[in-house]
Design a protein that fits this description.
The chain is α+β, with helices and mostly antiparallel strands and 382 residues long. It is built from 8 helices and 21 strands. The strands form 4 sheets. A 9-stranded antiparallel beta sheet has the order 8-4-5-6-20-19-18-12-16. A 5-stranded antiparallel beta sheet has the order 7-1-9-10-11, covered by helices on one side. The two termini are 14 Å apart. InterPro entries: DNA_clamp_sf, Rad1_Rec1_Rad17.
Length: 382
């Protein structure tokens, strides 16, 4: 995570002779719909219904305060979970904008802005002119001198809306929280790239099981199994390694890797599937799960939604005690390249016990340097 700049407090003479210069930032796009779709995955509000109308319902899982990191390569928005077990971020590449102006030497690593603002206020300001986002242009501006992040919308009829959001450059406990370093501290043992549409369709089955609070992810060299237990019994999804589902599926060592996560937080991490084309799962040796959604807009420009989630602590000891006994327990399929019509198998089992079972601002690739076992793999990183 980018650190916040040191205090500029000092005498007037010190300020006047300081080598620091303000570099106002400006970015313009006509792709407002994509921006709103991406940033909505970070919002502290979740969809709700009242009398048939969708209304925002407050969620207690994320801080509303969002870290914003502006650099020559793009803008990163980052929020952290209230209980410090999750972190979500959206990276908007500079080429997503029609105009991206950040004055200064782009070879200077210190060039840019770090600030904090309310993500819900930002999203509200981007939707003032109504739902026809494809007909609305959006402009972001910011200057360290004013500490104002301004959002200006203009529709095709020339109607303009401008919202000035007071930002803060003060470092907070939330801004110091960084799960990126926690994830990078341990070697990756699972890596899977999945078609987002298939993943969304399959995970919808998990969400339909009311009353479940945990989700088990079990990765083997030839299959991904997702399961949960709730009021409807056990929902069990078997996603075999086939070209209709996976771009790649790798485990190191090549055995079964099983972890358990909070269903509520994992469901938040899956929200990016709604707009993504591909989704990458990575799990490190400590069970920390990193999800990266690759989103391609109508002009073939890439942007990314990242989510990092720690495993449930009460499952770690059980997993470690069972790991020796499960090293040889891998799920083999009769044909590695089997293409199924639905892309996955699913079943609901009543009264059955569950299976045994845990960029962000930093530029972190969703892939390592090893060769993929599938030539169709399309790398995406940020």
């Amino acid at each position: 995570m980018s650190s916040f700049p040191p205090s500029q407090a000092g005498s007037d003479n010190e300020s006047s002779t300081s080598s620091h210069t303000f570099s106002p930032f400006r970015a313009v796009t006509t792709n407002t719909r994509t921006l709103i779709s991406l940033l909505s995955s970070l919002s502290a509000f979740t969809p709700g219904e009242s009398r048939g109308k969708k209304l925002p319902v407050q969620s207690s899982r994320f801080h509303a305060q969002c870290g914003v990191y502006i650099s020559p390569t793009g803008i990163t928005f980052l929020v952290s979970g209230l209980v410090k077990t999750s972190q979500a971020s959206v990276n908007l590449q500079s080429d997503l904008f029609d105009v991206y102006d950040l004055p200064g030497d782009h070879n200077d690593d210190s060039l840019g802005h770090d600030l904090m603002l309310d993500i819900n206020v930002l999203l509200s300001s981007m939707q003032i002119l109504g739902p026809s986002y494809e007909q609305i242009g959006c402009e972001f501006t910011y200057s360290d001198e004013t500490k104002i992040f301004k959002v200006t919308l203009t529709d095709r009829n020339g109607v303009t809306s401008a919202t000035a959001i007071q930002a803060s450059a003060e470092e907070t406990e939330e801004s110091r929280f960084d799960l990126d370093s926690t994830f990078l501290a341990s070697e990756v043992c699972v890596r899977a790239i999945i078609k987002s549409s298939v993943l969304k369709h399959s995970y919808d089955e998990i969400n339909r099981n009311i009353g479940s609070t945990k989700v088990e992810l079990s990765f083997s060299p030839h299959v991904l199994i997702i399961s949960t237990e709730g009021d409807n019994g056990v929902t069990y999804l078997d996603m075999p390694k086939s070209r209709s589902i996976f771009m790649t599926l790798e485990t190191n060592p090549p055995t079964k890797h099983t972890r358990v996560y909070s269903k509520a937080y994992l469901s938040d991490g899956m929200r990016g599937c709604e707009v993504a084309s591909e989704t990458c799962f990575q799990i490190n040796g400590e069970g920390v799960l990193a999800i990266q959604h690759q989103v391609v807009d109508d002009k073939s420009r890439n942007c990314y939604v990242d989510f990092i989630l720690a495993p449930l602590q009460d499952e770690i000891e059980e997993y470690e005690s069972n790991s020796v006994n499960t090293t040889q327990d891998t799920h083999q399929e009769t044909s590695q390249d089997t293409d199924e019509e639905e892309g996955f198998r699913r079943r609901n089992v009543m009264n059955e016990s569950p299976l045994e079972g845990y960029t962000a601002p930093k530029k972190r690739s969703a892939y390592d340097d090893s060769d993929s076992d599938d030539s169709t793999e399309d790398e995406f990183s940020h």
